[in-house]
Every structure is written in structure tokens, then in C-alpha cells.
Amino acid sequence: MRAKTEARPGRYNDGAGLYLLVRPDGRKGWILRYRLGSKQRDMGLGSFPEVSLASARQAAAGARERLRAGDDPITARKAERAALVRKVEDADQRAFRVLAERYIAKHEPTWRHRIHRQQWKNTLATYAYPRIGGMDVAAIDRNDVLAVLEPVWTRAPETASRLRGRIETIFDYASAKGLRSAGNPARWRDLRHDLPAARKLKPVENQPALPWRQLPTFVTELRKRRATAARALEFLILTAARTSEVMGATWREIDEEHAIWTVPAKRMKGDKAHRVPLSPAAMTILQEMSPLRRKPDDHVFPGPRPISPLSSMAFLMLISRMQGMGAGEGKEKSPRWVDQDGRPITAHGFRASFRTWAGDATEFPREVIEAALAHTIKDRAEAAYARGDLLDRRRVLMEAWTEHVRAKTAPEVMPLPGGS
């Protein structure tokens, strides 16, 4: 048979039921015609020239062997393809990432703190999934786990240690589900010879904080910006709150009559509700944001969509713009706002600015300052006697803080923030 040169439409017999089919549009393919009982069937064996004559004859011979064994070649091929699809699907379900997401979904409701839930997801997505996320949990070994941990172990030992524990948990979960028979490759006793003890490594550096004497100048510039993120960042500075607390604040949490913001326990790092006394300046910011309020559960500082809060990147982007970096005749400018070591500041660092100011420039007692930061008292005996939250004394402290940061404030900005 001259399969390559045959161009006329039709069916050309190679013998034993194998045919070359030439279609009117010039396309060619192989067909095996056979009889099963009283029925005649045509089985496609592929296109020419992708399937050569020799390959077509070999496939036809294999199909005839099945016929002699009493099997229908078409039915058998469908079953094989279905089994292959199931095998691929099973492999997908055995992937480390799939098991991790399944474990998180099952146990997340029992994790009270939102930050803990987010950290579980973030650490695995950032460090584990790129390396082992798509691998079968049964095939991952100790070297694969080390490849995940080693790049971050000395750079961020606390994060890496928690990451190792979470990976270990996922492997235990996989074993409990019968998806892994080998030992757990993330157990510390099997890794400790390759990784130094995290507690002995250099602690994670504190967040870069703007020196407190520079706060008035910074806030003066901040007040010139009409963006929602700018109002949120100023509110964060005035209340010495955490980023997540400000981002998640809703109008229901605000007691405007008594100028108190109550952050519920589920959104606090210490799992305990925290009352924040609001200075007149903080209340002014709320008044500026009030035209955007529609319902009690709306966010005080909404994102692009009314039902969503600001992005977690909003403060980072705002501070980056205020730094004035990256412009100027092809040369990168140095950041304008840095800590005492020259590192660019972060939003979380303003809490440290507040703590340093309160300790260096005021006579307020330590317990009042720590209560303003919602820090947990570690001494059990002291904590047993600290029944109140020192709200009235903290109000005086926060008003003094406001007087400091707004000492050289520019004129009030217009309400209804929108630009950057």
C-alpha cells in the first residue's frame, strides 16, 4: 500500500480488515473493520502520517488478539482510557497541596484566631507549594522537605520552624488517610542534623519604626493625601493599633457617643476584646469616612468594593509612594522615611514609635502604655490583679500622643477620600 501517495477519496484495503481511509478534504486515517457476533464495527487506529503503516498493522494485530480472546477491542480501549483518567485524577487527589487544603478546610473552624488561620495558608503557599505542592504525598522524602526549609531556615527561623510543624501535620494527615506508608519526613528528630535549632538562631529583626520626633512631619504630609489608605494609616497611628485591626474595623465596632472603638476578641492577637479610646482627631477621621457608610457592618475603611476592606498591600503601597523612590533620571532615590538604622519604615513600626515616645517623653506608667498596645501581661501574678483595662487613663495617654503627632499638622483635608 502506498499510503503516502494515495490521494483519491476512498477506502483502501491493506488486508485482514485494516483500511486506509482517504477523506474528500485530503485527510487520511486508519480503520480496522471487524465483526463481533452479528455486528460489524469500525475501530479507528489514528491518523496518517502520525500513525505509520507499520504502527497501524501492529495496532490492528493487537486488536485481533483481543477478538480471539473474546473481548471487544473498542470496549477494551475505552476501559483502558477511563482507567488512565482515573489514575491521573487519583494522583491529583494525592498531591501535597490538595491534602493540605483539605486539612485546613476541616480544621480551620477550630482555629479561633484569624491571623493563625491566615498564617497556615500563607506559609504553605509561599514556601511549600512551589516545591512540593504538586507532588504525591507518598513520594515526598526528607530531601524534598529540606529543599523547602533550608532557604528560609536561617533567614526567618521562627517562620521556618512553624512551617516545618505544619508540613509534618499534613504528612500525619496523609498517613491517617492511608495515602502514605513511609515515615514522616518532616519530623524534627530526622531533620535536626541538617538544620540548626531555630531557638539558637538570630531572632527576627523588629519592624522598622519611624523615630517618634519625626511623626509630626510625617503626619503633616500624610494629611495632604485624600486616599482611604491615608486616612486608615493616620487612624492606625493615632490609635497605636495593628494593621489587621484597622483594616477589619467596622462601623458596628464604633461607639461614637462615648468615642470608643471595641475590637472583638476574634480579631485580636490575644483573643481578648480590646477597647480603644478615640481622641478627637481619631473621631474626625471617622467623620471624614462616614459618607461612605451604608450599613453597620460596612468597613470603616472600605476597599474598591463596599463590602470588602482595604487590601493588605494598601499601606505598603501608600508608604512606598510617600518614600518617593524609583524616580529621577534613571537613578533610584533613597527612601525619605527610615528608622534609626536606615531601613524603610513599615506600618506596623508605628506601634514601636508610640511605645518609644511614651517611654522616653512621658511619665505614663508602664501598665497604661502596655494596655494601650493591647499587650498581654506575661507575669501571672500581676495579671491576676489587673482586672480593668485602664480605659480612662489610656484616653489621656492617647490624647497626649495625638497632640504630639499632630503638632505641626497641615490644614484639614477634604472628606470623601478617593485619590492617592
Side-by-side strand order of the widest sheet: 1-2-3-4
Radius of gyration over all CA atoms, rounded? 34 Å
How many runs of DSSP E, i.e. beta strands? Answer: 7
CATH architect. name of the largest domain: Orthogonal Bundle
- Tell me the number of structural domains: 3
Proportion of helical residues: 40-55%
What name is given to the CATH topology of the largest domain?
hpI Integrase, Chain A
Large-scale geometry: elongated
The fraction of residues assigned to DSSP E strands is 5-15%
Write down the overall mean pLDDT: 84
Main CATH class of the largest domain: Mainly Alpha
Q: What's the number of helices?
A: 16
In whole angstroms, how far apart are the ends? Answer: 75 Å
How would you classify the quaternary structure?
single chain
Order of helices and strands: EEEEHHHHHHHHHHEEEHHHHHH
Largest sheet: 4 strands, antiparallel
In the predicted model, the low-confidence regions spanning at least 5 consecutive residues are 325-331, 379-386, 410-420
| Structural class by sheet pairing and helices | alpha+beta
